[in-house]
């Protein structure tokens, strides 16, 4: 038997005597004692007694050992300071204001005792006998004195006062150990963090160190009735858990937890020898959920290991669970093996829970793969009435909204009002909202986004301080409001694409009305709203599909109006200047005719002028003017140049020279814009057998080549010189429809 962390030779000799009295042991003698390390030889009879010995040693108060490693003939253990010097402790928890509200403060007011008790498990010398919620005033003055006296009378030597508060966006956790013998403090620790659980974790770890330091004082030992040896043993720590952070678990983020974990555990070697063969096993309800190995930790150094979670605990689908996550750390120092444990509370929310402080995580609920969602959206999509290819995406989005967004579907607010700035909220899955036939703004937004994405319409989530809107792609890039004849205010620009803001709660109002309301909210919250694309958010928070067919949503063909009526309604409603040439372009393109627009009317529009020329048949002029702008560093013109070349029906020698350099010209695009274009398949790539689809595939290939160049450029931060050769003069109408071609271009700066 090898025993580490024995500071006193006399205590080791007494242990030898105690060991000889264990069942099945016929003899025990100490072979050596050196540098906090003892070696004993035990003899006995019977293989069964030998098998039971390790368990008997660990559970016995006579020797107070913690077994780290055992074979048939060798046992490695260490003196268990926590058990040897443990003291009964009554905990009083002063909760933060906010009980009864659906906020983080409300959650901690309700379940704080469980969180506090879990972290106090890391201070093994505190035997927590009870945790009671109490008002702050009940622990002041005479109230505190009475509590201490009552505990002393009951034979409980320690009282621990825990409090939580919040100020200026930061949480403060205070833990104070008080001796019931005199009502005076023994040790105090304070922890601060952005979240309450993190604050408690920090204060508990600090309290452990503060309590051990307090035991170095003779007066503290006397007050607690501890022997002088407690101070020496408390100082012998070896490998310690320096921090143990486990975030709240939101089931919809399970794919993230599998890859990145739910937190970190840091272990530090406080001894004089290097630690080897360390292994951390994480356990929930005695079941190992993951394990991590660390080869070596030098004296004074620390190692951080991720707390991974591969599966959700059973029962998470039915309600919030408050569990205790244990970390069992085993290691080797020289010839001895050691073991230490740490604990952290694990709050596993029910599947529908979201924390709006991470708004991108709502993407996890958007399920475009649900069979019912896809079937309903496909049926509604068949009712689309496009007035021209330029309006195709708008017509498709309008058909889905008009056909499905009516009774019996209804808006029903959450039972408790939430504040998006500091709240835990619930979001229904698309299947749940369809089955229930109702939801609040985020539930309806998630369902609508799922319907759009299921048929290839890209979406964006628009978050305001108190509301959430949905954006659906218009098919146009930045500045594309011009060929649509609408003011810029009618859209939301996300990563260089124009999205139509929709008010998902406008059930029964029709697509045009929902668009108007979305514009009003987005305009009112301008500067306060944040928008992100669903497909970009899926990279960080991939969808977690949920089974279930949901309810039925029957499309109403009579309710579908068409793209033209929606555009006319918006043109009359949304304020903003629309140039005459823009209106002319919007009216001429859907008919398929080349726009008869005077070049003078687009003066001062450097991106628009060459595009109008190209659409009118002056192809060489459009290409050369865009090439000139590209060479001067206009990223949007570089993209437009590529689009023109991809759309050209005859790529002869005169355009081949420009095409060779045009592919590299795309590297000037911002990374977010390039990602968006690729996410959207170039610009809404369809897989149909059309010239338009063929052109978009060429654009996608060029973008994929450019993506690596974009990364290199950002790393080097040095602009690359772009030389574009002029193209010979040619005229003619492009083979691809003018209306479809117009929305492939950037008509204004991507960051407008």
Helix content: 25-40%
Uncertain segments of ≥5 residues (pLDDT<50)? Answer: 416-421
**Average pLDDT taken over every residue:** 85
- The total count of helices amounts to 25
- Beta fraction of the residues? 15-25%
Report the strand count: 26
Report the sheet with the most strands, covering strand number, pairing sense and barrel closure.
5 strands, mixed
Question: Overall 3D geometry?
Answer: elongated
For the termini, the CA-CA separation is 74 Å
Structural class of the helices, strands and pairings?
alpha+beta
Structure in words:
The strands form seven sheets. A five-stranded mixed beta sheet has the order 2-3-1-5-4. A five-stranded mixed beta sheet has the order 7-6-8-9-10, with helices on both faces. Helix 15 runs parallel beside helix 17 and helix 20 runs antiparallel to helix 21. Helix content is 37%, strand content 24%. The protein is elongated and about 105 Å long. The protein is built from 25 helices and 26 strands.
In short:
By secondary structure, the protein is of the alpha+beta class. It contains 25 helices and 26 strands.
């Amino acid at each position: 038997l090898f025993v580490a962390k024995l500071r006193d030779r006399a205590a080791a000799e007494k242990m030898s005597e105690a060991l000889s009295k264990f069942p099945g042991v016929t003899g025990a003698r100490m072979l050596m004692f050196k540098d906090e390390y003892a070696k004993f030889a035990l003899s006995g009879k019977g293989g069964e007694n030998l098998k039971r010995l390790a368990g008997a040693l660990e559970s016995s108060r006579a020797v107070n050992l913690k077994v780290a490693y055992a074979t048939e003939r060798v046992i490695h253990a260490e003196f268990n300071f926590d058990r040897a010097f443990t003291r009964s402790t009554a905990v009083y928890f002063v909760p933060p204001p906010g009980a009864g509200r659906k906020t983080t403060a409300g959650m901690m007011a309700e379940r704080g005792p469980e969180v506090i008790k879990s972290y106090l498990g890391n201070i093994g010398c505190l035997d927590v006998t009870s945790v009671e919620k109490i008002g702050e005033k009940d622990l002041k003055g005479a109230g505190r004195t009475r509590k201490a006296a009552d505990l002393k009378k009951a034979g409980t030597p320690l009282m621990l006062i825990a409090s939580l508060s919040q100020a200026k966006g930061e949480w403060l956790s205070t833990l104070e150990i008080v001796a019931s013998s005199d009502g005076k403090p023994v040790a105090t620790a304070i922890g601060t963090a952005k979240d309450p659980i993190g604050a408690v974790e920090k204060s508990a770890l600090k309290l452990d160190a503060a309590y051990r330091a307090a035991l170095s004082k003779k007066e503290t030992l006397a007050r607690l009735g501890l022997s002088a040896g407690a101070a020496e043993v408390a100082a012998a720590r070896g490998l310690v858990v320096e921090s143990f952070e486990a975030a709240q678990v939101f089931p919809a983020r399970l794919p993230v937890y599998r890859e990145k974990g739910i937190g970190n555990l840091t272990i530090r070697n406080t001894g004089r020898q290097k630690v080897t063969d360390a292994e951390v096993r994480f356990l929930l309800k005695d079941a190992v959920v993951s394990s991590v190995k660390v080869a070596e930790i030098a004296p004074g150094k620390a190692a951080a290991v991720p707390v991974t979670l591969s599966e959700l605990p059973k029962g998470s689908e039915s309600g919030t669970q408050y569990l205790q996550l244990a970390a069992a750390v085993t290691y080797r120092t020289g010839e001895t093996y050691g073991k230490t444990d740490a604990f952290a509370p694990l709050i596993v929310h029910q599947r529908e829970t979201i924390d709006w402080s991470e708004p991108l995580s709502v993407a996890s609920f958007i399920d475009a793969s649900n069979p019912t969602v896809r079937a309903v959206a496909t049926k509604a999509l068949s009712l689309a009435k496009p007035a021209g290819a330029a309006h195709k995406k708008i017509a498709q989005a309008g058909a889905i909204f008009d056909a499905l967004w009516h009774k019996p579907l209804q808006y029903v607010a959450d039972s408790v009002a939430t504040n998006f700035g500091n709240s835990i909220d619930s979001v229904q899955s698309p299947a749940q909202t369809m089955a229930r036939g109702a939801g609040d703004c985020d539930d309806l937004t998630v369902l609508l986004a799922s319907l759009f994405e299921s048929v290839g319409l890209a979406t964006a989530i628009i978050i305001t301080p108190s509301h959430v809107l949905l954006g659906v792609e218009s098919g146009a890039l930045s500045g594309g409001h011009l060929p649509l004849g609408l003011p810029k205010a009618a859209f939301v620009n996300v990563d260089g694409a124009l999205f139509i803001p929709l008010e998902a709660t406008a059930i029964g109002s029709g697509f045009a009305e929902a668009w108007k309301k979305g514009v009003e909210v987005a305009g009112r919250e301008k500067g306060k709203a944040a928008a992100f694309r669903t497909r970009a958010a899926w990279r960080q928070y991939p969808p977690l599909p949920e089974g279930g067919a949901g309810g039925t949503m029957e499309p109403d063909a009579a309710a579908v109006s068409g793209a033209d009526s929606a555009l006319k309604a918006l043109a009359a409603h949304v304020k903003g200047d629309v140039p005459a040439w823009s209106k002319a372009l919007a009216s001429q393109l859907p008919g398929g005719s080349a726009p008869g627009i005077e070049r003078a009317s687009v003066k001062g529009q450097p991106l628009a002028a060459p595009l109008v020329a190209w659409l009118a048949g002056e192809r060489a002029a459009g290409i050369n003017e865009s090439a000139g702008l590209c060479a001067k560093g206009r990223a949007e013109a570089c993209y437009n140049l590529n689009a023109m070349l991809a759309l050209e029906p005859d790529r002869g020698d005169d355009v081949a020279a420009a095409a060779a350099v045009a592919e590299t010209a795309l590297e000037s695009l911002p990374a977010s814009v390039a990602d968006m274009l690729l996410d959207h398949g170039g610009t809404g790539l369809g897989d149909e057998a059309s010239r338009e689809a063929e052109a978009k595939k060429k654009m996608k290939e060029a973008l994929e080549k450019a993506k690596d160049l974009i990364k290199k450029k950002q790393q080097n931060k040095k602009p690359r010189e772009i030389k574009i050769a002029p193209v010979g003069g040619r005229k003619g109408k492009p083979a691809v429809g003018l209306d479809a071609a117009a929305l492939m271009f950037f008509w204004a700066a991507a960051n407008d």
